[in-house]
Amino acid sequence: MHDLLIIGAGSCGSAIAARATENPNLNVILLEAGPDYPTLSETPADIINSHNNSYTDHDWGLKYSPTQGRNVPFPRGRVTGGSSSVNTTIALRGIPEDYDGWADLGNSAWQWENVLPAFKRLERDLDFGHLSYHGDAGPISIRRYPKEERVPQQEAFLDAAEQLGYPLCEDQNDPQGWGAGPQPMNKIGRLRVSSAGAYLAPIRLRPNLEIRSQSTVTRLLFDNKKCIGAEVLTLTGETKRYEAKTTVLCAGAIMSPAIMLRSGIGPKKELEAHGIATVADVPGVGKNLCDHPALAVVARVKDGVNINRDDPIIQTILRYTAEGSDKRNDLQIEQISFAGTEKSPPAFSIAAVLEYQYGRGELTLQSADPLVQPNIHNRFCEDDRDCNRLVQCMKDTLRFTESGAIADMIDSVIFPDPIKGADDETLATLCKRFSGSGYHPCGTTKMGPTTDPFSVVDQYGCCHSIDQLVVADASIMPYVPSANTNLSCIMIGEMIGEWIRTKTGHYGL
Question: What average pLDDT does the structure give for the chain?
Fold first, then answer.
């Protein structure tokens, strides 16, 4: 029997494995459903290449319904490093209000002053590491593209932002910062700095760590109301059992609740509908799904403007606050270097992204079969507060197409269709019909006190209803932070990993 069983070697699980195994008295096993590449020479090009996402080779093949009547691909990483191995390598933290808001909901351990040391500990900021709110010696290297490395459309985006009156923000992780500037990114040249490379590579020889890849968890194992491990399906079709004193579920905001539901932890009526015996009736499992709704303006470029699909997909960003909003930096606009397919006319897009979502979706099971993916319903822009702010962001995004150097590159806007106009009503219809995910799902096993009937875990990740079961990933976030979530996930791994390492008794170790 192991002391600690970690399910999922993604952004959170990798960090927890690294911190927990610093305690030589803890024997840790880390399970990953996808493949593992122990060395850089064994790592496929789609994972190394940070200039674009990996969309298919290391993907779960999920589908989701962002709005009514749609069912589209929902890429998530299925490999050591999880989505950090396939994503856009944006390294944003969010703002202090995000985490203070979590604390206000009964999770005082997550106040900004408490999570800032974890953010500093995880990063090696190559530009601003000397500042008091940054780290300079962590495993995740972060840098920003300087002017001489930015592709023309990305530099033109910053020119347009200046023309439109937005301030320059050189460090988008300045806790009080806002405006347009270079994206902080966890990449060095073309190399993606994933959690697998940053956290797992240096610890693989630790004698108290075992990594098992190609191991899909089918269900958790229990002794009454105590979790004692997990059942696993291997690549060869073999079923195995791994037992441990404490199990930490780090499978992400989609797979963590799905595993809990298949194991009998969730809303009793839903479990009964699939013939699953109820271990614990927990109404919040799979509920409270939140994300970053987004829609993009697509523009065809003029003859002579070079669109190279091998360029970095993103380098710059604008963060700002919607008019009349009390949620600071609740909007983002991002220049995407290319759009369409290789066969379509050269084009780029400018994404409008809502960073604070009032509306909530849900995740439910299609089947008790662990090989059948869950239903994912985001319900974007059904809440008028979300729709109205995304409409404003779209209008602001359209202004970029008419301003500064970016306007000089554009031949025509092809979405939204200019013939149909860009009034509030027309844009609202588009947002309700076509908005999609920023691919930052969270909240589906949210943390909170027991007085919240829809909380699933406490502020330390410990499941309210099942002993020796911890959840530590984006699913415990009460709501999505106002930033791409990868750094926030790693921070969660740092926080809970340190608690496991230093407060073993609290976790039954």
Answer: 97
The token pair that represents 217 in the structure block: 């968890």
Residue range(s) occupied by CATH 3.50.50.60 in the chain: 1-59+78-145+192-262+442-509
- In this prediction, residues 90-113 reach a mean pLDDT of 98
Burial status of residue 395 (CB atoms within 10 A of its CB: 0-12, 13-18, 19 or more)? middle
According to DSSP, the β-strands at 239-249 and 469-471 are: parallel
**Inter-residue contact 125 to 134 (CB < 8 Å):** yes
Q: Which residues lie across from 447 on neighbouring strands?
A: 457
Distance, CA of 253 to CA of 270 (rounded, Å): 18
Q: How many CA atoms lie within 13 A of 38 on its CB side?
A: 7
Query: Read out DSSP for 158-202?
Result: HHHHHHTTPPB-S-TTSTT--EEEEPEESEETTEE--HIIIIIGG
- DSSP three-state, residue 115: helix
Average pLDDT over residues 167-177: 98
Whole-angstrom Cα distance, residue 345 to residue 338?
Answer: 11
Contact between 251 and 259 (Cβ < 8 Å): yes
The class level of CATH for 1-59+78-145+192-262+442-509 reads alpha beta
Residues β-bridged to residue 281: 266
Q: Give just the sign of the alpha carbon dihedral 129, 133, 137, 139.
A: negative
pLDDT band at residue 357 using 50, 70 and 90 as cut-offs: very high
Q: Does residue 416 have a cis bond before it (omega within 30 degrees)?
A: yes
When pLDDT is averaged across residues 300-323 and rounded to a whole number, the result is 96
Angstrom distance (rounded) from CA 100 to CA 113: 9
Half-sphere exposure of 403 (CA within 13 A, CB side): 17
CA distance linking residue 302 with residue 411, whole number of Å? 5
**Class assignment of domain 146-182+293-356+381-434?**
alpha beta
Paired sense of beta strands 316-320 and 331-336, if any:
antiparallel
Bridge partner list, 289:
361
pTM of the model: 0.97
Give 242-277 pLDDT, tens digit per residue.
Answer: 999 999 999 999 999 999 999 999 999 999 999 999
In the chain, ranges of CATH 3.30.410.40 domains: 146-182+293-356+381-434
- pLDDT per residue as tens digits for the range 323-335: 999 999 999 999 9
Instruction: Please say whether the beta carbons of 444 and 485 come within 8 A.
Output: no
Query: d(Cα 469, Cα 458) in Å, to the nearest integer?
Result: 11
Q: Which residues contact 185 (CB under 8 A, 6 or more apart)?
A: 50, 89, 90, 91, 142, 143, 144, 145, 315
> 16 CB contacts (<8 Å, ≥6 apart)?
6, 248, 250, 472, 493, 496, 497, 500
Helix (H, G, I), strand (E, B) or coil at 456: coil
Structure tokens at 196: 């697998």
